[in-house]
Design brief:
The chain has 219 residues and is an all-alpha fold. Helix content is 79%, strand content 0%. The two termini are 35 Å apart. The relative contact order is 0.24.
């Protein structure tokens, strides 16, 4: 790929980073355990769509401006932290119904469709409102762009697209694995109530951690 250095290392590092558990993985696994593989994969698509926003913004320089502005960083940081806490509270107060079994009823399909849309957009906003994702792309991707290349923004976008596509397959793998466990491990099905509560506590913890984080440009 023209303008790219160490492409193999970039791909390997991206896959390892996506395998690392964090708010995104937790979000995908939680929905896959509660509602099955389809919900988990929709959650993965929502997370990936949010990443595309950060990649486009970074390529255009918006993320760099945000990183340099304490006010812009703080606004996005507090919005993201509040949203993560909101997701956590929803999980803590939800009534778990266990693993969802497909039904042929039209009404059930309609309810599932609305639920899947909510899962997608919740994952999307969870990612978009996290300024650390924007800063990650600004710090990680340029290391693999050849110095002096003319169209750096274009190369950045191509690498971002590659990172996201590789990450999508990893996240789908998380969703399928979690759904498989929910179907076959009875302890997971019986413990779904406590899994929701544990996930809720973790989401709140991620939100508080984000709220207490500093803008790297201030140091």
């Amino acid at each position: 790929m023209g303008g790219v250095e160490n492409l193999g290392l970039f791909i390997a590092a991206g896959i390892l980073l996506n395998l690392t558990p964090g708010p995104d993985v937790l979000y995908i696994v939680t929905h896959a355990l509660r509602r099955g593989a389809r919900a988990g994969m929709v959650a993965a698509l929502g997370i990936t769509a949010g990443c595309f926003v950060h990649i486009a913004a970074a390529a255009l320089g918006v993320s760099a401006l945000m990183a340099a502005s304490s006010t812009a960083f703080s606004v996005l940081k507090w919005a993201g932290a509040a949203y993560l806490v909101y997701v956590g509270v929803r999980l803590l107060t939800s009534k778990s119904t266990g693993f969802a079994i497909d039904s042929g009823a039209i009404d059930a399909r309609s309810v599932r469709a609305k639920g899947l849309r909510a899962i997608f957009f919740q994952g999307f906003w969870t990612n978009v409102l996290n300024p650390k994702v924007a800063l990650f792309f600004l710090a990680f991707v340029p290391q693999f762009i050849t110095p002096g290349v003319e169209n750096k923004a274009g190369v950045f976008l191509l690498l971002g697209l590659l990172f996201n596509l590789n990450g999508l397959w990893v996240n789908i793998g998380w969703a399928l694995t979690a759904a498989w466990l929910a179907r076959r491990v009875h302890a997971v099905q019986r413990g779904m109530f406590w899994l929701d509560r544990a996930a809720g506590v973790l989401f709140i913890g991620f939100g508080l951690k984000l709220a207490l984080s500093d803008n790297p440009s201030d140091h």
